[in-house]
Amino acid sequence: MPKFLDQSKPYTTQTFWAGPPGTYKSTIISSVPKPLYVVFTDAFGKALPYLRRGNATERQVSPEGVLFQEVYSKKDESKLLIRIEYFHDVDINNPTGFDDFEQRFASVDFEQYKSVAIDSYTSLEWMAKNKVEAMPHAEDDGWFVPRIAKRCIERYVRSIFPGIPCNLFMVGHLTKERVNNKQGNNESTISHLFAPAAIGDLKEDLPRTFPEMYVVRVIREGGERKIILQTETSNRYAASTQLGIPDGIEIDEKTTYKQLLEAIGTKGE
Is residue 198 part of a domain? Predict the structure, then answer.
């Protein structure tokens, strides 16, 4: 493993995982360096990969009013591995999920964590849309909600998330919507058939912002279903890696983040 990936070194990275449900994105992220802080916006049942990493507490409410669970080491019951904080719009007529997230995220002490996960970006963006949809607005020809919701979320994508002083891992979905990305100094372009599911030009900004952009794909070979990690750009997907994670690794429910790092430099062997 390259020396700059030693966890004792002051090196952090930002990774976006895009792909369909059930492709072990959260499972792999649950294995990243600990302690891990998770902003969880998906259905409660999808938090299971994190809860399985140790001894999980019951759901409880913090003094700040945030619903959370903690996961402790099975070997050392005093050692915190994961803290999961849940953000949802319980009352769609009075959506507070995104405001709750913003208020809490501004007060998190990131120095106590090695990693942060946003699971998922897709649901976080939906909460931003719910917030804006509930705002008073006159007839707007459909521009108000997507434009204002995009402003809510892009501050995090472009400024706040990249500046977190620990490893950042974000889960998102894909949409079949062709986008064109400029490449290199000659302004050449490459067209992708699929893009991260996001508002407006955030579809293009997410791959540009995250140095690690992984796409998890399901393929069939000889009738067998396989899940493949794509880390290099193609005419169908935008993907990239500065760490050097090999393109085309087959993953399953047992794959860990450490194994992906250990595969660096093995391409072609």
Answer: yes
Whether the Cβ atoms of residue 27 and residue 19 lie closer than 8 Å to each other: no
Identify whether the C-beta of residue 181 lies closer than 8 Å to the C-beta of residue 190. yes
The span from the CA of 31 to the CA of 76, in Å, is: 17
Q: Residue 151 falls within a domain, yes or no? A: yes
- Is the peptide bond preceding residue 191 cis, with omega within 30 degrees of 0? no
- The position carrying tokens 């007060």 is 107
The burial class, CB within 10 Å (0-12 / 13-18 / 19+), for 223 is exposed
Give the total number of structural domains in the chain.
Answer: 1
Phi first, then psi: give them for residue 249, nearest 5 degrees: -65, 135
Q: In sequence order, what are the beta bridge partners of 15? A: 169, 212
What whole-number distance in Å separates Cα of residue 230 and Cα of residue 245?
9
185 within 8 A of 169, measured Cβ to Cβ: no
pTM of the model: 0.88
Alpha-helical regions (H) of 110-243? 121-133, 144-155, 202-209
Measure the CA–CA gap between 189 and 177, rounded to whole angstroms: 16
Q: Kindly report the CATH number assigned to the domain that includes residue 165.
A: 3.40.50
pLDDT in tens, 204-252: 888 888 999 999 999 888 888 999 999 998 878 889 999 999 999 999 9
The distance in angstroms from the start CA to the end CA of the chain is: 15
Q: Is residue 234 part of a domain?
A: no
Question: CA 35 to CA 3: how far, in whole Å?
Answer: 21
Task: Give CA–CA dist 238/225, Å, rounded.
Answer: 23
| HSE-up of residue 130 (Cα within 13 Å, Cβ side) | 20
